[in-house]
Amino acid sequence: MNMQLNEDWQLTWEPLFRQAADYIEVVNKQKDWLQTNLPCDVHMPLIAQDIIKEPLLADDCFSSEWIEKRSWWFKKQFDLTEEQFASERLNLAFESLDVEADIWLNDSHLGHHRSAFYPFAADIKAKAKVGANQIMVRVTSGLELYSEQDLALIGETKVVFENDQVGQRGDNRRGMLRKAQYVYGWDWGPRVATCGIMGGVTIECFNSLQIRNVYATTVGINAKSTAQVRFQIEMENLHPFKTLDASLKLELFHDAKQIAILKSEPCLRSGLNYITLELEVIDAKLWWPNGMGEASLYSVKVEAQSKSHFVEYPTFDFGIRTLHLNVDKLPQGIDERAFAFEINGVALFSKGGNWIPADSIYARVTDAKYEALIKEAKEANFNMLRIWGGGIYERDAFYTNCDKYGILVWHDFMFSCAKYPDQLAWFREEVEKEIDYQTRRLRNHCSIALWCGNNENHWGFDEWWNETEAAHFYGGAVCYNEIAPRLVQQNCPEIPYWNSSPYGGEKPNGSQSGDRHHWHDCMMSEDMEKRITPEEYDKVTAKFVSEYGYVGPCRKSTIEIYHNGQILDRESKVWQLHNNTFEKDTVLAGINKHYVDSQQMEIDNYLLYAGLCQGLMYGYSLEAMRSKLFCAGALFWMYNDCWGEVGWTIIDYYLTRKISYYFVKRAFEPVKLILRQKEGLIQLTVVNETREMIKDSFEYGLMRYDGKEREAKQIELELPPHSRSVLLEWTAELYDPTQAFIYVKPIINNNEIKPVILRAEVFRELKLPEAKLKVEKVHELDESHTSFIVSSDTFAHAVHFSLDETIHLNDEYFDLLPGEQREIVISHPGHIILADGIVPSYIKVMNNAHS
Fold it and tell me: TM segments (predicted)?
C-alpha cells in the first residue's frame, strides 16, 4: 500500500527572509507556481521553462547564482484511501532534502531537517486524513544561516578560488552544511549551488509487522569454494505490548534458479527483533573484481507473514566474497607497511580513478548515465572507483552497477578539504545519523571495499592549517577518529575503515605506509619540467597512490557543445572558465616538450597533441606504479566530469571518451608487459590478473624504428594466475635512442598480450621514417560491431582512425611496431561503418606534421 509521491509537485520562490513563520502567506499564494516532478533540483524546472539558461553552458553559471539567495517552496496534494489511513503506522519519508528544510502536512509543521545525506521521516498518522492532504516544503541552499563568527574555529577551507575568469569558487561556510561540498565550486567545477528535493517521497503504510533490514555477509570460503553465508534480519512487531507469531522465509537465487530456502518461525517481541539465518553454499560462484574473474551475483528474497498481514523486503543482489585490507609490516624498512586489498584471499592491484558527482546538478543524473559511466570504467579495465569526499552518497543505481560490472568502491565519507565544526553537539548528531544511515544502507553491496573518513583533512591538520587562528583545533577529528570507526564496526565490521585519504605513518601524506596523494612531486610541482616528465613517476615509493593527475582537453565535439555557439578561442572568457584552475600552462608546456612548438597552434592540433600528452602521462605513470611490487594501487584524479572542461578526466560530461581514455585502458590491461630501465638493467614486469596460467614465447631486444635492424632473443615465460613479478632482466646495450627502442613482444601476434616498448627519448626528437598503414579484413561481426586488421611497415605512433568521436573502439591512439598487425573492433550502435570510411592516421615528427 505504499504510495510514491514523485509527480505533480508545484514550486515557487521567495526572498530568503521568508521563513517558516511565513508559511501561511506562501501556501496561499495564488500564482507563480511552476509544475515539476521529483527528484527536483530547483535549477531543473527553471531551465525547462526558460527562466534561467543551462548553467553548464558557456558562462551562464553566473546568471543563475541568484538561486542560492532565495527560499524555495514545494507543494503537493495527494489523496489517502480509507485502507491506507487505517494502517497502524503511517510515515511520510523524503529520501533527500538539500539542505535546510521545513516540512508541513495539512498546515501542521512536521519538523526541520538540515542534511542532504540521510532521509527525513515523520509519523503522520495524527495529522493525515482520508481524502485530500497537502504537503509543503521550504528549502534553501543553507549558507545564509552562518556568519563569520560561526566560522571562528573552522577558519578558511583549502578550496577557494576567485578571479575574473572563474568568479568565486568555494565558500568558507560550506563546512557548516551537510550537503555536497563541490556545488560551491572547485578547481574542476563551477559554483552551481544545489537546492531542492533530491530523491523520492513516499507514504509508507505499516501493519502488524515490518522487515526493516536484511544484512548479508560472507563468513568464510574454504578451498573447495564452499561458502558460509549469514543473514541478519531486523524485524519489528508494531504492537506496543503483545508478542506476535510470524513465519519468515528467505530464498537465495543464482541466474534466476532457486538454490536455497531458509525458514524460521520467530516469536516477535514488541519492537525490534533480530533473527540470524546461516547457509552453506556448495560450489559458490564467487564475486571477483573486473579482470580477475566473474562478478557473480546471487539474489536474496525475504518475506514474512503474520496471521493478519504479509510483508516482503525488496529483493536485492549479493556477492559472495571475502575482503581484507593488508597493512602488515614490510621487510624493506623499519616503518614500511603494506596497503593492499585482498579479495577471496588473492592480492589485488587496485586500478581506477576518482569519482565525482556526474553533474553539477546531481539530481538529474539518470540511471542510464550511471550505467554508461561504470560500464566505460569496466571497459577501461578498472577494478576500483574512489567516491571522493566532497560529493554525495550516490543513488542506488551507482552501487548496483558497480556490483554488476565488478568495480570495487573506495568510499569516502562526505568531508573534504576543510575543518568541520564537530565542537557543536548538533553537528555531531547530524554526522552520527548520516554515517549510521549510509553504512546500513550500502553494506550489502559487494562492491564496497573501504569506508574512509574524509578527503585530505588529516593532511590539512599536518601541513595546511598550522598558521590559522585556531591551528590546534582539529575540527572534524571527532567525526573521523571516533564516530565513523565506531559506526562502521557496529554496522558493517567486515568492511575496512581508514581515517582519511591520504593517511598513514608519521606524515599523513607520506610514502612509508597507507595511501598517498602524489601531487607536489609532479603535477603540482613548481618545477614545470617535473609536471610534464612522465619518468618522474618512476620515483614513486608510495604503497598506494589514491590521487594524482594530469590535465587534458575534451574532444572538439564536446567543446563546441559547452561553448554553445561561441568561437573556440583559448584566450576567451568561456574557454578560461572551462579550464581547470590548476592547469597553469601545463598543457602547452607538455606539447612543447613532447611533440611540437605550440605557438600559433590551431585548435584541432592543440586538442590532438594535448590529448596525447595527457594520455602519455597517465599511461606511463600507471604502468610505473603497477611495475613496483610494493605498490598495490593507482587511482588517478579523476575519472568523470560534472561539466565540460579542460581537466583531469578521461571521459567527459557528455560521455565522450577523451584521447587519454585509451592510454589508461592499455595501462590497466589484466595481462600486461611493462618495461623499465633501472641501474643499467632492463626489467620486464609481467602482470597476469586472470585466473588462468598463461604460457607464451616472447621476442625481446633492440629494434630500429624503421624495422630494418634488430638485436633479438627469444624466451618462453610462464605467467601464473593472479601474479605480478619481474620475469626477465638483461643488460642495456648502448644505442641511439632517436633511432631505436627496446621492446618485448609475443612471437605470435596475440591480442591478449600486446607488445611493449621502452622509448628513451621524447617523441619530437625521434628520427622516424614515413610509415605506410594498411587496413584490411574489414568484417561485420554483427549489426553493432565491425572488426578490421591494421598494420604498418615501420614504427607508427598514436595510430587512430577517421571515425566519429562518439564511436567506441577497443583500442586507439596506440603505437604499432614495424610489421605488427593489430585487430581492432568498432562498437557502433546506430552507425553504419563502411570499409573506405576507416582511414588510419599516425603522428609524424618530420616537419612537425600530422599524417
Answer: none
